[in-house]
Amino acid sequence: MSDHKITDVAALEAIYGLPRAASLTKEVDRLLPVYRRFVEAAPFCALATSGPEGLDVSPRGDATGFITVEDDKTLYLPDRAGNNRVDSLRNVIRDPRIALLFLIPGIGETFRINGTAEVLVDPALLERFAVEGKKPRSVLKITIETVFFQCSRAIVRSDLWNPEKHVARGDLPSAGQILQAVSKEAFDGAAYDEALPKRVAETLY
Hints:
Blueprint: H1 9-16, H2 21-25, H3 33-41, E1 44-51, E2 54-61, E3 68-71, E4 74-78, H4 87-94, E5 97-103, E6 110-120, H5 123-128, E7 139-150, H6 153-158, H7 175-182, H8 189-202
Antiparallel strand pairs: 1-2, 1-5, 3-4, 4-7, 5-6, 6-7
């Protein structure tokens, strides 16, 4: 099997060839107006970070346009209530490199931004991003390095936005069932699931 392992870029390029011109042209170093519309339309993105303990990718979502475009090189991403693991923020403090993958319901193309980030706790900035009187505990300031869109093939192949393909929640283990299983019964899964909807509603922000 070792003879079939690709170990250098030249061998990889011999298989895949070179990217098409459009694949290179679409990458720019700032948020052009045509790209800004994707950020403003997105209710969800995945945030990828790297730190001494390894890699992390974390979901981020809120009302459409929850990531604010400050200018063509700067974004602000408020950190809403979560599980307090703060894996992404720990990573950013030690390695500022980040990547964002935006998903927009109904749209085939995804949108990607690479850059660096810093964790800010300026009171005026936190107040600016308050929702229902609740301020985020920090805000990520993202400095853009590269911007580009990804073609729709992955979304088309997965049929991601087709409601007929939605998986019924009961077909997969619940949060409580997962915790009960991985904790070797230390968690009461049924009690956790019963309390979860109310807890989520009360701590959304």
